[in-house]
Amino acid sequence: MQAEISLQLLDLGMNAVEAGARLIRLLVAELPRRGELCLLLADDGPGLPAGMDPADPVSSKPGRRGGVGLGLAFFQQLAAATGGRCWVRSAPGRGTTLAARLPAEHWDLPPLGDLPGTVWTLLRARPGLDLAYRRRRGRHRFRFDTRELGSEWMDEVRRNPLLARAVLEYLQAAERRLGDEAPGAPGRGRG
Amino acid sequence: MKIEDLKRLRESARRRIEPREGEHAVRVVLSMSTVGIAAGARDVLRAVVDELERQEIDDVDVSLSGSMGCDNDEVVMRVQTPAGEVTYGHLDPERARQIVQDHIRDGRKVERYIIARPIGTQADTGRGAGTPA
Fold this sequence. Notes:
The complex is a heterodimer.
Chain A: H1 5-18, E1 23-31, E2 36-43, H2 70-82, E3 85-90, E4 96-103, H3 115-123, E5 130-137, E6 140-145, H4 146-149, H5 153-159, H6 161-181
Parallel strand pairs in A: 1-5
Antiparallel strand pairs in A: 1-2, 2-4, 3-4, 5-6
Chain B: H1 3-17, E1 26-31, H2 34-39, H3 41-54, E2 60-65, E3 77-81, E4 84-88, H4 93-105, E5 114-116
Parallel strand pairs in B: 1-2
Antiparallel strand pairs in B: 1-3, 3-4, 4-5
């Protein structure tokens, strides 16, 4: 359904925001030596709805509130299609953690897509939301953590187009530098 | 640009918006549901913010929401102004830029992309001419 991995991460992140998460952690790591793409999305929200089976989120979704668990199902489908692995941990009131290790060069692995745009969108999702983003390609890495900038910082980004644009350009530049600094990085048209 | 540069930029940007803080004349709400995201809501959001910045319009509150119940019409964006509220659908970045220019900047609604208006207003269920059947 969603060709880019970054769109799937955005969908899952927005689900967490809607569920009431105040902090989202996102890790996207390309590890060429291991031939792996590692993803982690964790939130401090209420956790998966009681009765929802992480292994079968669509069929087991209880009640009528919220979505039907498609985001999680799509993500699991991605892991299955590429022969990768996917884990979901969730506890009531203690948030949800979703992690995946995917074979980086698998034919069916979609491109990462626009990660800076995805992170930037999540940053704007709700006043007071904190986002801890870590990005890695090989030994090159950067991070962007709104907690380092002050809790009200992103609220201003939400209100001020000038600042919003600056943050997006910052994330895009960091992503480009990652590519420049990592000769021989997988050229799958990601980022 | 480094984190320090972002912090410095924040100070200058803050001065620019302080006089109007809390008094946004226009509110834009963009649906960022699963369907909306798949239909391109992320790129529409970028276009809206980019166009606001290009037009030097800084008294608009741009918010995100979950599904507005209009999956068939995604990407969906609600624009609230002192003159009223309308919901636009089937948006792409180019159409969103046009809405910023015509509706938010000039006060002229872009009729062909409107999918809903509040009940009781003119053509409250009107679908725009640009809406696919």
